[in-house]
Specification:
single chain, about 475 residues, alpha/beta, 6-stranded mixed sheet, 4-stranded parallel sheet, 14 helices, 19 strands, binds zinc ion
Length: about 475
């Protein structure tokens, strides 16, 4: 006969040594395995669960030692039944972990990440798509800010118990890239690979984790072709001499833009260039024919290449599915890029909204003007890294409201360096710290409320010790540049 050896205790088990309390043996009708979760029923018909901790063999029996997941009057247990067949991911659950799980459950209300009014609960994987780089020139601070914020979004979500899944694309099919490669006398794909390598190095120095997925436009041309076909099928697009145009006449309406502003913004992003046969000035190319010196792929509409918004729409859907939780990018991407990306996926799938929340990172300015590669008005991350450590740059980018525009000066990073020193001092040496759950909860609550880093810093400094260490960990400010 198999026996189940369970501690006969009615007390809350919060220490491992409570296993030493008297045990009683009850029969298990079939063999169990270590790590298996079983359900026990007591005389009152109540069910409690326990995990098989250890097997012991006697001459006649296999004895299973159990760890209880919940207080239970086991002297009244009458049988082991209703086995849960699912195995735990870990070999077994220790009792203190169970209490931590229960604490987390009590705390659940405080643990939703709130972004722009959307409550993102840590239930399903948190799907985050960040519009990445067009790899034709080195990374400037404006770009870096977006990717550092996306990294912190993931880290805060993880601290709240969510499972973030990040995708950050590389737009390695783009007319700007093609033109830059032509000027440099290099094949466009070679230029892209070199620039991407340097970008990755900058991101590593800023402690930005590699996203789980890194879709490249060059690998997603067939996905754009499928998107174009789906849009045609849905009546949301039309063909004209090798072009497939998305009907975007209503896209500016959603963000409440007047026609003049919408036209000006779309012109800035090239949406008004070479668009023969278009019905509305707000229609954009999902697919377009390529000239002699442009990369081209076969499609049902002839040789050509994808439009920019369609590339991101296809890459996001292919990487994360037909709807996502957070769409991330610089504030200048809100319109037209993100608006079209979302509208295309929604029109193709019928699922809306495409993104439950957006996180638009504030504009970085230099001399009062927007920092941009196209105008050459920029500060390179690699130049700043020669003067400031990565964690200092990171804190300089983060110590502000996420959506606010700011001027990039040396002073920002000098101040961030002083603040980081203060934080390290307030945290004290990691070895001497005892965990402060209340302090941690206050820091996390500030971060969950729209990623309010300045508020979280203030809370941490007021609390001191472990709360500050926790903040440094969640904001990933400890790591050294590699
Ligand atoms: Zn994009």
């Amino acid at each position: 006969m198999d026996l189940v050896d369970v501690p006969a205790s009615t007390r809350q088990l919060d220490e491992h040594e409570h296993l030493d309390v008297p045990h009683r043996l009850i029969a298990a009708p079939r063999p169990l395995e270590v790590g298996q979760v079983v359900v026990l029923r007591d005389l009152d018909g109540r069910h409690r669960w326990a995990a098989v901790d250890r097997l012991r063999f006697t001459e006649t029996d296999t004895v299973y030692e159990m760890q209880l997941g919940h207080p239970m009057p086991l002297e009244r247990a009458v049988e082991v039944g209703a086995y849960e067949s699912r195995r735990m991911a870990r070999p077994f659950v220790r009792v203190p972990d169970v209490h931590r799980m229960l604490d987390g459950m009590r705390d659940q209300r405080a643990r939703a990440l709130v972004l722009g009014g959307a409550r993102l609960l840590p239930v399903a994987p948190l799907r985050v798509y960040t519009c990445g780089i067009t790899p034709y020139a080195v990374t400037h601070v404006g770009h870096a800010a977006t990717f550092v914020w996306a990294d912190v979004l993931a880290s805060v979500a993880r601290a709240a118990g969510a499972q973030p899944v990040l995708a950050r694309n590389v737009t390695d099919v783009d007319d700007v890239l093609t033109a830059a490669a032509a000027r440099a006398g290099e094949p466009y794909d070679e230029l892209a690979v070199v620039q991407e390598f340097q970008f990755d190095r900058d991101m590593t120095a800023l402690s930005v984790a590699r996203p789980a997925q890194s879709p490249h436009a060059r690998g997603h041309v067939p996905a754009v072709v499928r998107l174009a076909a789906a849009l045609l099928d849905a009546g949301a697009a039309y063909e004209h001499e090798g072009h497939v145009y998305f009907d975007g006449s209503s896209v500016p309406v959603a963000p409440g833009l007047d026609e003049e502003t919408a036209l000006r913004l779309s012109r800035e992003y090239g949406d008004q260039d070479s668009v023969p046969g278009r019905r509305s000035p707000f229609d954009v190319a999902v697919w377009r024919p390529s000239g002699e010196d442009q990369p081209a792929w076969p499609s049902p509409w002839g040789w050509g290449r994808p439009g920019w918004h369609a590339e991101c729409a296809a890459m996001a859907a292919a990487s994360l599915g037909h709807a996502i939780d957070v769409l991330v990018g610089g504030v200048d991407l809100a319109f037209p890029h993100h608006a079209y990306q979302a509208a295309m996926v929604e029109a193709a799938t019928g699922v809306a909204p495409f993104a439950r929340a957006t996180m638009h990172v504030g504009e970085v300015r230099l001399g009062g003007e927007k920092m941009a590669k196209s105008t050459g008005n920029l500060v390179l991350v690699s130049d700043l890294l020669e003067r400031f450590p990565g964690p200092v740059l990171r804190l300089g980018l983060l110590h502000r409201p996420v959506g606010e525009a700011w001027e990039c000066t040396d002073e920002v990073f000098v101040e961030a360096g002083a603040l980081l020193d203060r934080l390290h001092e307030a945290a004290g040496p990691p070895s001497g710290r005892t965990e402060d759950p209340q302090g941690r909860a206050s820091v996390l609550a500030a971060l969950l409320a729209g990623l309010d880093v300045p508020a979280a810093v203030e809370v941490a400094l007021d609390t001191g010790g472990d709360a500050v260490g926790y903040l440094l960990d969640v904001l990933r400010l400890r790591e050294r540049a590699v």
